[in-house]
Amino acid sequence: MKQLVVISGKGGTGKTSLVASLAALAGKSVLADCDVDAADLHLVVRPSPVSRAEFVGGKNAIIDCERCSDCGTCVDLCRFDAIAGEFSDRAVDPIACEGCGVCAWFCPEQAIDLVDAIEGEWYRSESRFGPMVHARLNPAGENSGKLVSLLRSEARSTAENRKIETVLIDGSPGIGCPVIASITGADLVLVVTEPTLSGIHDLERVLGLTKHFGIPSMVVVNKYDINEENTRRIEELATALGAGTAGRIRFDPAVTTAQIEGVPLVEHSDDGAASDIDEVWRRVKWSLSAGRFLT
Ligand code: SF4
Ligand code: SF4
Question: For the domain 2-55+120-290, what is the CATH superfamily, name and number?
């Protein structure tokens, strides 16, 4: 079983559209939407949930005002200013609370309990491209990477149990904890970038991250024809940093049309950017099975 993770230096590079097309080209694979802060792969893949479960991200303090003697200790000790109010209506702000437990430990009346913080829910689904795991964070729900790790673990065990050869992961953008959780243990990372100065800067940071973790990476330039000079710079940078090149995808208004229709681009048309993606998949598939990549 091979795990391919598609990431980008920032949001809005066309990463999820590309993942949807790769899902259509891959045949049956397990899909994991690990871009949980902006989960939208389901809008194109349109999976049917089979089961759902709450995602417990950590702990929140709650105060039992019946037992509170209004000593003020918890307010003084909370470093996150999460406790407000007076005697009888003293309460914890669940968004500010980090669940550290200091207030509960020092409350002289044992009036504070720590309860599970429900940050969202996650789903096991079926789609026409294969099984899918995905999630929805509550407003202000926290994604520390724990939810991403949970989704990846579920995707891996689904692939093993159902003997599916490919796990295709829509990873989190950036270089923080969620993206580290997205790429850890992957067989190949495909980095989507655009030929802009910020795209070059972001690519450098992302490839630094994948190199640090020793994960083979390939780069694909989306909308390469809006600045071919920058596209060349990106490909040279990729090679200099030890990454492979997966190809170039041209700017194509059909991408927007396909999004509006809610279908992967490669199912909407077979020329233009769709044919570029076909070539990208051919190179990525070869690299996944060969364990080395084309430059
Ligand atoms: S530490 Fe306990 S008793 Fe004191 S104000 Fe807070 S909840 Fe009330
Ligand atoms: S658990 Fe920690 S962060 Fe939350 S209210 Fe208590 S002291 Fe503040």
Answer: P-loop containing nucleotide triphosphate hydrolases (3.40.50.300)
